Amino acid sequence: MEALVVSCVSSFYKPTPIHKKFNFDKSTPIPRSCFSSTSKIKSRSTKGFTSLSSSTKVLPENVDPPEAELETETPNDKFEWFSQWYPVMPVCELDKRVPLAKKILGLDVVVWWDRNENTWKVFDDTCPHRLAPLSQGRIDQWGRLQCVYHGWCFNGTGDCKFVPQATPDGPPIHTSKKACARVYPTTVQHETVWFWPSTDPKYKDIIKKKKPPFIPELDDPSFTNSFINRDIPCGYEIIVENLMDPAHVPYSHYGVMQLDKPPKVKADREGGQPLELSVKKLDVNGFVGRQEWGSVKFIAPCTYCMYADDDPVDVQGNGSAKSTGTDEALVRPKLSGQQRMVFFFFCIPVSPGNCRLIWGTAKNFGSWIENIIPKWIPHILSNLVVDSDLYLLHIEEHKIMEVGAANWQKECFVPTRSDALVVGFRRWMTKYAGGQINWGGKFSPTSLPPTPPREQLMDRYWSHVVNCKSCSYAYKSLNTLEVSLQVITVVSIGIVAATKQGVMSAAVRTMVVSMAIVCFVASRWLAHFIFKNFHYHDYSHSFP
Ligand SMILES: *[C@@H]1O[C@H](CO)[C@@H](O)[C@H](O)[C@H]1NC(C)=O
Ligand SMILES: *[C@@H]1O[C@H](CO)[C@@H](O)[C@H](O)[C@H]1NC(C)=O
Ligand code: FES
Questions:
Q1: How far apart are CA 175 and CA 163, in angstroms?
Q2: What is the rounded CA–CA span in Å between residue 121 and residue 115?
C-alpha cells in the first residue's frame, strides 16, 4: 500500500499554547502587534516549519504549515477527480415516480428509478435528440425514461426504445448508437445513491474493482442513521475545511450549538480554548487524524467521519489509545459503555463556489427519540448551524480566490494545533489533488459566481426544503394550517358582523371574537415561523 506514515503533524505544532510562549497570562489577549509582521510571513517560502516548536521567544517569522516536513514514499501518487465514486442523494429523499436533476463535479445528471431492474440509474441529463434535460421527463407506463420534449424513450441501459417521429416502415432509428442516452455507473451504498463520473463503457463494471468509501457503522443494523442534505453556495474546499475545524464552533455557532463541557477557565464569553488536533497519516486517499473527543477520517474526495468515543479507537489500530488532549470537549455527545456514534459528512463538489452536503449520524442508542420526533424539527437546528457559517465562508472563499488557492499557506496564518486538520486537508489538496478540483475543463479555475443577495445566499427553500421529504411535508402542512386559521378568523368575524344584535348572546359574541383574534395572531405567528424556518433566516452574529 502506498500509504505513508508521517510523523504526526502535531510534533511540529509543539503543544505549547501560544500564550505560554509569550509568557502572557491566560486571560490576557495576545497583543495584535505580535502578529503584525504578516507581510514578512506572507512573503516567505513555505519551507521549514520548525520554529514554533523551537524555544524562540518572539513570534517566529517562519510559521507555516508543516508541509515540508511530511515525507512520502510514493511521491508520484496522483488523485484523479474523475476516478472516484460520488454520492448523488440519500435514497430516502428520492421519489421513484420522478426523475431528479443534480449537478455533481460540473456534470448534469438525472437520477431515476428503473423499475424493470429495480435499481436507481444515473444518466447524463441530456437527451440525444436535441439536448433537452431528461430530468424534466417522466417515467412512462413501461417504466422507461421519457424525454418530454418529443417523447423519445430510454430503457435502463440507455438504449433508445421508441422514437415517436420515426415512420414504422423507415430505418430503425432508435437502434442507432447516436440515439442512446449516456449512462453513468451507479450503486447504492449506505442508503445513498452513488455514481462514477464517466460514461465511458470501460467503467461499466467499475463497482467490481472499486467501491465507494465504506463506513461500517452505517451498515450495522444495531445503528440508526439519519440523513440531511443541503445545497451550499460555497465551494467544496471551504466546506471540507469548515467540517474539520471544531475551533469555530463556540464562536460562529454561539448560542446555536452548546458546549458540552465549558472550559475550566473561560477567557471569553464563548469559551474557546486550545484544541489538540493532529493528522496522523496522510496519503493520496485522504488522512486520519485526532480531535479532542475521538478520531477523524477524511476519505477523499467526499467523505469525512468523526468518531465520538469516550475511549476512542486509535486511528492506527486497536482501541488502546486514549486521548492525550485536554479533558475539555466541544459538543461531545455524552456516551457511556457500549454507546457509539459517528458523525458522517459527504461534501460533494457541484461547481465552482457551490457544493452539496449530505450529513448525519449513525448511533447505536437513543433511536426511539428519532422515531418520535419528525425529522423536520431537528432539521431546523441543522439549517441554523449552516446559516450561521454561510456568509463567513462565502466571503472567505472569495478572498482566497483573490489571492489564489495556491497561496493559501502563504496568506493564511495558522499557528495553533486547532488548525491541524485544515492544514492537513490543504496539504492533501496541493500534494495529491492538483491544488484544486479538476472540473474537466468546464469552468475557469479562478472564477467564482458573484455574491448573491443574502436572501439567496441563505435561502433554505431551494437549497433544502424541496430536497427533503420531511421538510416539504411540514412546509405544506403548516401552510395549510396557516390558511385554515385565516379562514376561521374571517368566518368568525363574518358571523359576528352578520348576526343581528340579540340573536347571539354577549357571551357567545365575545367568545367568537376572541377566537377570531387568537386565530389571527396564530396565523401571523405561523407565517413568520414558516418564513424563518423554511425560506430565509437572516442570521446575525451580533444578536445571536
Ligand atoms: C434495453 O434495450 C436494449 C436493446 O433493446 C437491450 O439489449 C437491453 O437489455 C435493455 N435493457 C434493459 C434494462 O431492459
Ligand atoms: C495495540 O496497541 C498497543 C499499545 O499501543 C501496541 O503495543 C500493539 O502493538 C497494538 N496492537 C495492534 C494489534 O495494533
Ligand atoms: S429533445 Fe428529447 S425527444 Fe427531442
A1: 10
A2: 10
Q: Is 165 in the pocket of ligand 3 (CB under 6 A)?
A: no
Q: Whose CA is nearest to atom 8 of ligand 2?
A: 318
Question: CA separation (Å) from 66 to 7, 91, 281, 406, 415?
Answer: 11, 40, 13, 16, 10
Longest dimension (CA), the chain: 95
Read off φ and ψ for residue 139, nearest 5 degrees.
-90, 125
Reported pTM: 0.81
Buried b (16+ CB within 10 A) or exposed e, 175-198: eeeebbbebbbbbebbebbbbbbb
DSSP 316: T
All three cell numbers of 33: 502587534
List pLDDT tens digits, range 255-279.
887 655 667 777 887 888 888 899 9
Q: State the Cα–Cα distance between residues 249 and 256, nearest whole angstrom.
A: 9
In this structure, which residue's CA is closest to atom 1 in ligand 3? 130
Residue 133 to residue 1: CA distance in whole angstroms: 42
Specify the residue with its C-alpha closest to ligand 1, atom 3.
Answer: 159
Classify residue 131 as exposed, middle or buried by CB count within 10 Å of its CB (0-12, 13-18, 19+). Answer: exposed
**Looking at residues 98-122, what average pLDDT do you find?**
97
Closest CA to 123 of 63, 191, 182: 182
